[in-house]
Amino acid sequence: MTKLQTLPAASDSSSGKDGKSPRRRESPGSLAFSRSARIKGLVKHAILIIVGGVMIYPLLWMVVSSLRQNDLIFREPGLWLESLEMSNYTDGWSALTHPFGHYMVNSAIVVLGSILGNLISCSMAAYAFARLQFSGKKIFFGIMLLTIMLPFHVVIVPQYILFSQIGWVNTFWPLIVPKLLATDAFFVFLMVQFIRGIPKDLDEAARIDGAGHPRIFLRVILPLMVPALATTTIFTFIWTWNDFFGALIYLTDPDMFTVPVALRAFVDSQSATSWGSLFAMSIVSLLPVFLVFLFGQRFLIKGIATTGIK
User: Fold this and answer.
1) What 3-state class would DSSP assign to 19?
2) Which of 245, 254, 235, 243 lies closest to 285, judged by CA?
3) In Å, how far are 82, 137, 175, 189, 197 from 221, measured between CA atoms?
4) Exposure of 193 by Cβ count < 10 A (0-12 exposed, 13-18 middle, 19+ buried)?
5) Taking a C-beta distance cutoff of 8 angstroms, is the pair 173, 117 a contact?
6) In this structure, what DSSP letter does residue 82 have?
7) Is the separation of the CB atoms in 197 and 309 below 8 Å?
8) pLDDT tens for each residue of 138-159
9) How many angstroms separate the CA atoms of 290 and 234, rounded?
10) Using an 8 Å Cβ cutoff, are 296 and 234 in contact?
11) DSSP structure string for 233-249
């Protein structure tokens, strides 16, 4: 019998001397492409940083000006501080008839009433447009969308006459009651789009169990609308907290002033304006808006995307 001779295994041509696969060499074209992509990325980030700095500069200047002496605010427009003037905050807090916290409480009352009104009325109107079937539905929905393009200044005169005859001028009711009537068509449209993304199978399953429209709305639809409700809450808070025109029209008593009207009281055309105190209280009034947007940002993104159950 012939002995079988064992031959050494053929070495893999794709492996290196150490048994590992060699590294793939990038072609000069791919290296040039990666370099150009990095350069374009750096240029885009640089442009964004510059534009962001230009946009945020007024806010930074207001923060710095709130820490300067009143006579140096417009003499030194830069952001460099030689000394901190914390008295602007203490003086501004007690500069008006009431402490500034009084006006923040007034704004909080209006904001809470407006948020509750929009959440209740807009969600119910959105459910009706998205799920119910009634005659003239498309016509009413189109009219509702047209009101988005209607400026507030167009209806302010008849509204003022109506609220004046009722006796609601110089009260918070003209700023809160319209929210209970689903007058903010933007939020109705936002919730309608969100409800349309929720499968109707859930409604049919609840209807088989004997649930009517009120129970379906409260037990099925409303819990799934949390992102849209959070978006409505955030936008209502920001718009109502910063509303100056409506509060200026309806509120004449200094005891009823909200934050924007109270800030306007710092500017006096007959005497010297305390700009340092004005900027200091402006920073204080911006803190609630900043905190609401900071903690509600993720709900805001989900609500704007109007994504239902997939």
Assistant:
1) coil
2) 243
3) 57, 20, 28, 16, 11
4) middle
5) no
6) S
7) yes
8) 999 999 888 888 888 888 889 9
9) 11
10) yes
11) HHHHHHHHHT--HHHHH
The one-letter amino acid code at 240 reads: T
Q: Report pTM.
A: 0.80
Beta carbons within 10 angstroms of residue 227's beta carbon: 20
* Residue spans of alpha helices (H) in the chain: 28-65, 87-93, 100-131, 137-146, 152-166, 173-176, 185-196, 201-208, 213-216, 222-224, 226-241, 245-250, 259-264, 275-295, 297-305
What is the full DSSP assignment across 22-73? Answer: PPPPPPHHHHHHHHHHHHHHHHHHHHHHHHHHHHHHHHHHHHHHTTS-GGGT
Evaluate whether 170 touches 251 at the Cβ level (below 8 Å).
yes
Task: Report the distance separating Cα 193 and Cα 141, nearest Å.
Answer: 12
Q: Which residues contact 283 (CB under 8 A, 6 or more apart)?
A: 62, 63, 66
249 and 160 Cβ atoms separated by less than 8 Å: yes
Closest CA to 92 of 283, 229, 310: 283
Looking up tokens 């807009």 gives 122
DSSP SS3 for 20:
coil
* Structure token digits, residue 249: 């029209």
pLDDT averaged over the chain? 83
Least confident of 192-196, 202-206, 223-227, 305-309: 305-309
DSSP secondary structure code for residue 217 in this structure:
I
Please calculate the CA angle 244-246-250 and round it to the nearest 5 degrees. 120
